[in-house]
Amino acid sequence: MIVCTTENIAGYRIDKTFGEVFGLTTRSRNLVRTFGAGLKTLVGGEVVTWTQLQDQARLEAIERLKNNADKIGANAVTMMRFDSNEANGIMSVVAYGTAVKVSEL
What we know:
This protein has two helices and four strands. It is an alpha+beta fold. The chain has one domain (2-104): Translation Initiation Factor IF3, CATH 3.30.110. The chain has a four-stranded mixed sheet with strand order 1-3-4-2. The longest helix is centred in the middle third of the chain and has 24 residues, at 48-71. Belongs to the UPF0145 family. Pfam families: YbjQ_1. InterPro entries: UPF0145_dom_sf (IPR035439), UPF0145_YbjQ-like (IPR002765). It comes from Oenococcus oeni (strain ATCC BAA-331 / PSU-1).
């Protein structure tokens, strides 16, 4: 499955457009790690726990995006983007784009 952030894929032509497709994940933070991360904000620097959580969520959202595109017959996703939201220690990440069927030129 090809996933790109551009409208076109070099070396391929778009044969069919299926439309919007997305992958969503929602994760909660570990209370102990959140407390430790809160202490880290007092001294500055990267909050590794939160970075890892966001990275895992983005990877999971992309995998779900690919699975959803595959289910409708697409073999690529163009114009892929991320959106995220966090409230009360719960983080949602969505990967979305346009599901397409492509073939090599």
